[in-house]
Amino acid sequence: MGVKPIEKHAHLGDILPTALRPSRLLGSLLALGACVFGAACVHTQQAAPQTTPTADAATASIHGTVESADGIVYQGARVALEFPTGDNDKSATQQTDSSGAFNFKQLSPGRFEVVVSSAGFETQTLSGNLRAGQSYDARTIVLPMAAAANSVEVSAGSHEEIAEAQLNLEEQQRVLGILPNYYVSYDPDALPLTTRQKFELAWRTSIDPVTFLMTGTVAGIEQEKRTFKGYGQGAEGYAKRFGANYADGFDGDMIGGAILPSLFRQDPRYFYQGTGSVRSRVMHAIAGAFMCKGDNGHWQFAYAGILGGIAAGGISNLYYPAGDRSGVQVTFENALIGTAEAAAQNLIQEFVIRRFTPHLPAYTPTP
Questions:
Q1: How confident is the model over 258-280, as pLDDT tens digits?
Q2: Cα–Cα dist 143/362, whole Å
Q3: Statement: residue 287 has pLDDT above 70
Q4: CA nearest 122: which of 97, 108, 142, 92?
Q5: pLDDT tens per residue, range 89-139
Q6: Which residues lie across from 67 on neighbouring strands?
Q7: Domain count, the chain
Q8: What are phi and psi of 174, to 5 degrees?
Q9: Does residue 56 sit within a domain?
């Protein structure tokens, strides 16, 4: 959503670029519940039991990354650590995180095997001998497609079809079965969107019936409080407020969610982590306010979302009353505030919203 004039600071979420938050409609509603839900989330996350290391505590570790044959980091691959010598109590299993990484810690020395597997790919095994206190670097493990999968031609068209099917599922995500929650991917293996799909997602958000309902509600509140007096009162004043609010959302959706993400080849969605320590999930959510996934699968600075918010805020000055327009400094200040609010909303998304979004497929979350 575009950056509003300075008077709009009171409406949390109004100035957020769409690409920086899970849903433009969640911005105005869910940020108000951040304190309540945030406290509940903290109490539901139990800290892992702490143990005091002894003199003979295991300190060795094994780490590495997993990539597909085309060099894209592989998120959600199963990594099993096994000890052929019979030390079954040391065996462990992880899934690669959003950067394709795995890390087994607090290990005792001995011979080991790392088995990496995923449906449709050839299983890879790495063996070695772990020394006491060693940090073993398994480097990059490449998962080639299985022979059966290689017999099928994987074309750009087939990738687009898979991404379209994933997008269709996302477009059914509604909080409490009502509020659209399209700009969140719960699928750890979601393919990047094509340019057409980015515009489809932005357009679908803009024409959703709830979008019009919420826009009308905000316009009614503004009219009641006589916000933007230059618009006047009565039916004409309400129509102008409705149009300005809708234009803010539409500009943010299209510029920050479709046009610039297509130019910069970036994904406008928030990628849910779902598992791991509270600290790792908090850091993931905060980073999502200014970092995004590129179409190449790598994380990068969110040029599209941040510049989209600034651009939408500048455009809003074309249709707001002259006395309520923002200067350049306020536009940039609002963009910074919007980034901070995006981080807060990502935290709500990471710890709260999923449980209130019914009928989600059984995705395997990232550890």
A1: 999 999 999 999 999 988 899 99
A2: 24
A3: yes
A4: 142
A5: 567 899 998 788 999 998 888 889 999 988 777 889 998 898 888 999 988
A6: 73, 142
A7: 2
A8: -140, 130
A9: no
Does one domain contain both 279 and 346? yes
Closest CA to 13 of 252, 196, 293: 252
Helix axes 234-251, 209-224, angle to 10 degrees: 130
176 and 94, same structural domain? Answer: no
Compute the distance between CA of residue 161 and CA of residue 187 in angstroms, rounded to an integer: 16
Same domain flag for 242 and 164 = yes
For residue 315, the enclosing domain spans 6-45+156-356
Tokens of 225: 């409080």
What distances in angstroms separate CA 261 from CA 50, 203, 207, 247, 301, one per listed residue?
43, 14, 20, 19, 12
Which residues, 6 or more positions from 315, have their beta carbon under 8 angstroms from its beta carbon? 2, 251, 255
Residue 313, helix vs strand vs coil: helix
Q: How far apart are CA 306 and CA 17, in angstroms?
A: 7
**DSSP notation for 204-220:** HHHT-HHHHHHHHHHHH
Is residue 367 situated within a structural domain?
no
The position carrying tokens 């969110």 is 302
Asked whether residue 66 falls in the same domain as residue 21, the answer is no
Q: Which of 271, 334, 350 is nearest to 15 (CA)?
A: 334
Helix residue ranges per DSSP H, the chain: 24-30, 34-44, 147-150, 156-170, 195-206, 209-224, 234-251, 260-264, 278-287, 303-316, 328-351
Judge residue 88's burial from the number of C-beta atoms within 10 Å of its C-beta, 0-12 exposed, 13-18 middle, 19 or more buried: exposed
| pLDDT surpasses 90 at 194 | yes
Which residues, 6 or more positions from 261, have their beta carbon under 8 angstroms from its beta carbon?
A: 19, 193, 198, 267, 268, 304, 305, 308
Residues 224 and 288 in one domain: yes
Q: Is the CA virtual torsion 232, 233, 237, 242 positive or negative? A: positive
